[in-house]
Amino acid sequence: MQENSFENARQMLEFLNPLDTERWPPGQTIFRGQPECSQQLLPSIHRLGGPVTAPRFYGDIDISRNQQVNFEKLVLNAFLEACDHSGLSVPGDSLAVRARAINLDSLVDGNASWPTNDLHEILAFAQHHGVPTCLLDWTRNPYISAYFAASSALGALKDTDKKLDGYLAVWALSTRATGFDIIQPPGGTSPYLAAQSGLFTVSRIYGPGDSIFLPLPLNQDKSIEPGPDDSSHLQLLTLPRSEAADLLEGCARMGVTGSKLFPGYEGIAKSVRDWANIHHRGSSLVEDSIRYLLS
């Protein structure tokens, strides 16, 4: 894995410039922004400290692969049943898919894995509406990843925090590498997916089902091999979190704002929260941020 550290937001944005096709050959890299550089590349449903996890559900940190798969199916079933009660359709859903792929009696064995391919569209839709799944969000647009890193870093700060310590992160993953799966659902799956140039990596679970489930972060998966002419399949770009407000403002100047990434009223509210977070941090960019972040 390669690492690059930047002192200020401008340096990071210049490095991420997609017009630099020598550094970023078109279509060969996907990006993900995170509020902390120490945060592993794990999907939300595999994070032990998350609010919706199998260990919390079963009351035991040592769970089997079958239990993890069973829990993920329970969560997905709960989402689909809630959509049924509300009369809402879900892309990719059908009675056949539910019977075959989300059958709670069909768990992991030596010859099967979870999730099955016919669930990808449903999982993507659930993921983009806040449901914990085995998918990890990525984007083809490096500036969008920078936006999410900056916005989530500012949003995670508490009023009692006196300063912005630590580093935010943007991960860059080569699509030419082997040993992992990328899911690219149709753009119509979700308006958010299309607006964010979104796609996913999936963390699969294989048998034997009775063995202990040990989450494996993508950045620690040694089975992933670099692609042709790649010195490394993964890059970690870090920036002091004290630069988060400037990074968010820089993304806005590139046309990347919450209102653009989340079409509708939710995106407007997201932009207002971003503006408020900059304002609360006393940034010199407050006045300009009103014009850009709310546009």
UniProtKB/TrEMBL annotation:
Pfam families: FRG (PF08867). Residues 25-169 form the FRG domain. This is FRG domain-containing protein. It comes from Vreelandella maris. The lineage of its organism: Bacteria, Pseudomonadati, Pseudomonadota, Gammaproteobacteria, Oceanospirillales.
